Amino acid sequence: MSVVREDFREILRLVRPDARVLDVGCEDGELLELLKREKNIDGQGLEISQAGVSACLARGLAVVQGDGDRDLDHFPTRAFDYAILSKTLQQMREPRHVLAELLRIADQAIVSVPNFGHWRMRTSLMTRGRMPETRALPDPWWATQNIHLCTLVDFTDLCRELGLRIDACAALSGGKPARPINPDGAFENWRSETALFLLSRPAGGAADAVPTDLFGEVAMPKAEAPARRRKA
Questions:
Q1: What is the pLDDT of residue 217?
Q2: Of 16, 36, 90, 113, which one has the fewest beta carbons inside 10 Å?
Q3: Residue 118 carries which DSSP code?
Q4: What per-residue confidence (pLDDT) applies to 230?
């Protein structure tokens, strides 16, 4: 069995069993298949490429071909428990609108973004004077699909502007275990290569909330080596 992507492991930990899940930009359906197998979700994918749609159908997954920038508007309000957007927001033409729509059609959104404020990005720009190529953003500037890169601070500011609550946040880096963080921490914009957020719309009161550590141990496929348990 192939190695499960670290961000997929963390998403698996966050999604509760039997939930209704929409995976936006689901590509070949690897995450949806994992969630269906391990959490028995009622899942649906939205994928723009025909190759991705075909791969999902070959896995026996429910998927529709569509563009997240335009087609999220057609989904009913609160049709899902979770809407997932994994390392895709920076490729959207209208990321603000997409983020707002995720929290309209689902009770919670799970969003991961590469952090352009990470120290490797800053160092590369300062020393080389070129657009960085890192593990989180490996493509050269002329070949990347990323058109709206942001920092951790930029993303949290947008969440507050939209009135969204950050229920949990973790930093991912180089295949290491996820590190639960407070995204407002003094040095997290330097340290976090990729950030994974669990977001919701508060029913009432202020959107600001101290992120909860919801990242922990979860049963993985038997072929996978168990992750080391983090100390609280």
A1: 42
A2: 16
A3: S
A4: 44
Structure tokens belonging to residue 221: 């496929």
One-letter identity of residue 53: V
Strand pairing report for 165-172 and 106-114 = unpaired
Regions in the chain scoring below 70 on pLDDT: 1-2, 143, 146-147, 204-232
From CA 172, how far away is CA 180, in angstroms rounded? Answer: 9
Rounded to two decimals, what is the model's pTM?
A: 0.82
Phi, psi of 100 (to 5 degrees): -65, -40
Residues belonging to the chain:
232
Distance, in Å, from the CA atom of 140 to the CA atom of 202, rounded to the nearest integer, reads 39
Query: Token digits for 149?
Result: 């890169």
pLDDT in tens, 133-165: 777 777 777 767 766 788 889 999 999 999 999
CA pair distance 173, 136, nearest whole angstrom: 8
Give the count of beta carbons closer than 10 Å to the beta carbon of residue 219.
Answer: 10
56-64 contacts, C-beta under 8 A, 24 or more apart: 56/26, 56/28, 56/29, 56/32, 59/28, 59/29, 59/32, 59/33, 61/26, 61/29, 61/32, 61/33, 61/36, 63/26, 63/29, 63/32
Three-state SS at 148:
coil
184, 174 Cβ separation under 8 angstroms: no
- 53/45 Cα distance (integer angstroms): 9
Measured N-to-C along each axis, helices 152-161 and 95-105 cross at an angle, to the nearest 10 degrees, of: 60
Return d(Cα 3, Cα 188) in angstroms, integer. 27
